[in-house]
Amino acid sequence: MFDLSAYALRFLEYLVLMVLFGVPLFGWYGSRRPALADALAGWPFMGVLLVSAAVGLVLTGADVVFKTAGIMGMPVADVDRESLGWYLFETSAGRAAMARGALLIAMVCVLGWHRRRGKVESAFPLAATLAGGALASLAWNGHAAAGEGVAGAVRLAAGFIHLLAAGGWIAAVLMFLGMLLRDKEPSDIGRLRSTHDFLHGFSTLGTIFVAALVLSGIAHYGDLTAWSLSALLQSTYGNLLLFKLSLFGGMLVLGALHRWTLVPRLGRALSSGDPARQVRVLRQSVTAEAALAILILIVVSVLGTLSPV
Fold first, then answer.
1. Against a cut of 0.90, is the pTM above it?
2. Per residue, what are the HEC states of 223-275?
């Protein structure tokens, strides 16, 4: 049955936990490189992370209640402590939710401690690790954790890799968009130069993310459907997956456009002292890529609830 609220909850969990993982990951990546650190200067990392972790905890709690109600076949308002206890302790998805909640609570504590010390950058490695674990736990919300034996372990590992690579890439796109929206004043050449350097420096890491997404996606689909093309072409799951792949293809095209054309043009424009037009074009392109990323998360929110065959 189509349940918009359940899909919306899944979408928000994916989005928030990917941001929660990607922001400290790139804060850590950038803080270790002086040229990139300039592009991240002035970002409210601690505030974003604390709010995201708090929202993630609320969403995890709501997810537990919704899942319990769905499995027990009862209205959400009728979910009681006994039903919640059964879901949390007797199902793998429930135990994953408890682990996710514990990781998010630990992250709030870590962030709070580092905030009191006034050292934001030192929190990034542990924050990225904790958030990565929370994001990976979402594998139990879909098909990745449904396998058994060696094949099931491979599928689960592919699910972990897919989630983390997607989280890194999507968070990077959203951060790039934030930088370009912040740098609307073309006269601030120094900040634009830092943003350009960050975009340029992402190319290697972006390639790693894409390779991880492709390989883990192929492994996951092959194990899930026994390499059946009919499942891809003749089922609702397969049709939605094809739509997701077309959106992913669009992101690849835009990513290649940024790497090979728009970012180099911005570099040349910065050297000539007139970057306004190139900044605007790049901002529009990154906005389009971010829109495709959001659409992919919407599709994924539905895919995890459908039978693949």
1. yes
2. HHHCCCHHHHHHCHHHHHHHHHHHHHHHHHHHHHHHHHHHHHHHHHHHHHCCC
